[in-house]
Design goal:
This protein is α+β, with helices and mostly antiparallel strands and about 170 residues long. About 55% of the residues lie in helices and about 15% in strands. The chain has 2 domains: about 90 residues, GMP Synthetase, Chain A, domain 3 (2-Layer Sandwich); about 60 residues. The radius of gyration is 22 Å and the shape is elongated.
C-alpha cells in the first residue's frame, strides 16, 4: 500500500509543471506530424494523484479545421510521447495522456483585437469631431488599422508566451 498523493499538493504541482515542460518540448521539437499546427502550446497539465492519467490542455492558434487536425495528430502521437515521458521523468507510473483543446489564448487574442477596434473607433470619432473641415487627407486608414491589429495580436502572443513558465 503506497502513499496517496493529494491533487493540489506541492509534489503534484511540481509533477504537473515537469510534465507540461516535457510535453511542450516534445510537441515543438520532436513530433513531426504534419497535422500538428506549429502554433500549438501546452497551456496546462493535470496529472491525477495516482499518476495513471493526465489531462493535457493545449491551445492551437488557427482555424477550427487546424485545431481538429492538431488534436488528431496529438492523439495519434500520444503513445510515443508517453514513452518519451517515461524516459525523461522518473515516475512510478507514466500517465496516459488525454488532450483537451483550450481556447483561452485564442479568446484573449480575439478580445485584444475587439478592444483595439473599439479604441480605434473612438479615436476616429474624436478625430472626426475635432477636424470636421478636413474632408480627405489622401490617407487610407483601413489598411493601416489592419496592420496595427496584426502587430498588436503578435505582441499579445509574445506576451502570453513570455508569461509561461520557462521551457528548457
Amino acid at each position: 500500500m503506497g502513499v496517496k498523493m493529494r491533487k493540489n499538493s506541492i509534489k503534484n504541482t511540481r509533477i504537473n509543471g515537469e510534465v507540461q515542460r516535457e510535453l511542450s518540448q516534445l510537441i515543438n521539437r520532436e513530433i513531426k506530424d504534419p497535422r500538428i499546427n506549429p502554433m500549438t502550446s501546452v497551456v496546462a497539465v493535470e496529472v491525477a494523484p495516482d499518476l495513471k492519467h493526465a489531462k493535457v490542455y493545449i491551445s492551437v492558434l488557427g482555424d477550427e479545421e487546424s485545431q481538429k487536425n492538431t488534436l488528431a495528430g496529438l492523439r495519434s502521437a500520444a503513445p510515443y510521447m508517453r514513452g518519451q515521458l517515461a524516459r525523461s521523468i522518473n515516475l512510478r507510473n507514466t500517465p496516459e495522456l488525454t488532450f483537451i483543446l483550450d481556447q483561452s489564448i485564442e479568446y484573449g487574442v480575439n478580445m485584444s483585437r475587439l478592444i483595439h477596434e473599439v479604441n480605434k473607433d473612438l479615436e476616429d470619432e474624436q478625430t472626426e469631431d475635432s477636424s470636421a473641415e478636413v474632408e480627405d487627407d489622401g490617407y487610407d486608414s483601413d489598411e493601416e488599422s489592419e496592420d496595427d491589429v496584426e502587430d498588436d495580436v503578435e505582441d499579445d502572443i509574445k506576451v502570453i508566451n513570455e508569461s509561461k513558465p520557462d521551457e528548457e
